[in-house]
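WARN  no MSA supplied for this record, continuing single-sequence
INFO  ligand: fe (ii) ion
INFO  echoing inputs
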Amino acid sequence: MNDTDTHLRRTAPLETPTSLGADARRDISGALNALLADFFALYVKTKNFHWHVSGPHFRDYHLLLDEQADQLYAATDPIAERVRKLGGAAVRSIGHIARLQRISDNDAEYVTPLDMLAELREDNARLADRMRETHVVCDEHHDVATASLLEVWIDEAERRTWFLFEATRPGETPR
Ligand SMILES: [Fe+2]
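INFO  complex generated
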């Protein structure tokens, strides 16, 4: 092997072969990386609220948010690996995530428990919307594997939204 070959090997893009084509690689990888950034942002926000929630429902909310954070984190690796299987490059750093995320951070010193749950409920609902949009992109390129993963994650986001919605409903007033 000569120097040119070595150089080419070193600088060759990390393009895993895929029969889905270059357009699918670009469109689906792009959409998945934006989702990956959203998952990381929502994971950190959910942990932030898990750590800082207070009040009479502390134990319930603290545990609920931990469960939800675990579920968000569990999806991140399969999303990134899906990007690689398509031959794209996954997010590389916290800075990269910050440039792509559409979920806004909440750095407020104090947030009421109900505001925390309402904000996460909205974020999870938006995340499900964006996954549905990505599902359409997958359908256009006949990428059934990514579509199938998204279906599971959409269901999980809807479950998180449901729990957050029920937890923020006013209780029955005693007669
Ligand atoms: Fe914890």
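The longest helix spans residues 22-52.
INFO  checksum written, moving to next record
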